């Protein structure tokens, strides 16, 4: 039986007017350090071991939430579908993360984002998420993407609107209700379990 070999599946760099979006390389120390820092800032105390997020936690999470061959034209990606937003070109400073995650087979792949506090409210999350969504739907060919957020997250709900997403019902994350936005024509979610760490195979 042939087994799939991990390969380059996703575009290494995407460009927008002001940003270069580079595919997260979890074997690159600087990339990993940036994502660890973002998680410790955004979800302090949320790391799985003692609260503090480590490189190992980020690698485990990234592997766990990778798009599966059934999402990716039968191909096994060696990378998570996570892009780092950099100012200017692909060597510019990292200012944010835009991620596509497969948490569970019963909820479509979700798009998410984080931007460094000092760079917020400048349109970067909207600009980066718009490009990543266009890439994955129109260029890569995945038809169903959702966006899951807390009902109180005004910025995130505005971004969903700017991405032309529509009311997609709700899911449950660790017992909390989260609102969902979907692409027009997709089915609404009805309270499905949305496990942050995913329920797929872990490497
Ligand atoms: C959510 C987040 C990524 C937004 O990043 P950003 O680069 O500031 O977003 P944008 O500049 O593209 O702003 C999008 C819209 O939200 C608005 N907005 C941004 N921050 C806001 C805030 N704190 N309160 C209210 N509105 C806000 C912007 O004004 C803009 O709306 P407008 O075009 O009508 O003015 C950023 O706040 C963040 O990293 N938050 C923590 C992580 C998070 O919550 N991620 C989303 C999880 S689903």
Automatic annotation (TrEMBL):
<dbReference type="InterPro" id="IPR016181">
    <property type="entry name" value="Acyl_CoA_acyltransferase"/>
</dbReference>
<dbReference type="InterPro" id="IPR000182">
    <property type="entry name" value="GNAT_dom"/>
</dbReference>
<dbReference type="InterPro" id="IPR051531">
    <property type="entry name" value="N-acetyltransferase"/>
</dbReference>
<feature type="domain" description="N-acetyltransferase">
    <location>
        <begin position="82"/>
        <end position="165"/>
    </location>
</feature>
<protein>
    <recommendedName>
        <fullName>N-acetyltransferase domain-containing protein</fullName>
    </recommendedName>
</protein>
<dbReference type="GO" id="GO:0016747">
    <property type="term" value="F:acyltransferase activity, transferring groups other than amino-acyl groups"/>
</dbReference>
<dbReference type="Pfam" id="PF13302">
    <property type="entry name" value="Acetyltransf_3"/>
</dbReference>
């Amino acid at each position: 039986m042939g087994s799939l070999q991990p390969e380059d599946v996703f575009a290494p760099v995407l460009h927008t007017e002001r940003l270069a979006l580079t595919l997260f390389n979890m074997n690159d120390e600087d990339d990993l350090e940036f994502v660890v820092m973002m998680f410790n800032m955004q979800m302090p105390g949320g790391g799985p071991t003692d609260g503090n997020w480590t490189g190992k936690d980020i690698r485990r999470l990234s592997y766990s939430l990778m798009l599966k061959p059934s999402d990716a034209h039968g191909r096994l990606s060696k990378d998570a579908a996570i892009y780092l937003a950099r100012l200017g070109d692909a060597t510019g400073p990292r200012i944010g993360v835009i991620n596509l995650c497969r948490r569970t087979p019963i909820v479509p792949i979700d798009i998410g984002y984080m931007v460094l506090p000092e760079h917020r409210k400048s349109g970067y999350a909207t600009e980066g998420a718009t490009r990543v969504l266009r890439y994955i739907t129109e260029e890569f060919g995945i038809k169903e993407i959702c966006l899951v957020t807390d009902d109180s997250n005004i910025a995130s709900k505005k971004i969903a609107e700017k991405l032309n997403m529509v009311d997609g019902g709700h899911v449950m994350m660790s017992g909390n209700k989260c609102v969902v936005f979907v692409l027009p024509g997709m089915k609404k979610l009805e309270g499905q379990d949305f496990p942050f760490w995913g329920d797929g195979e872990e490497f």
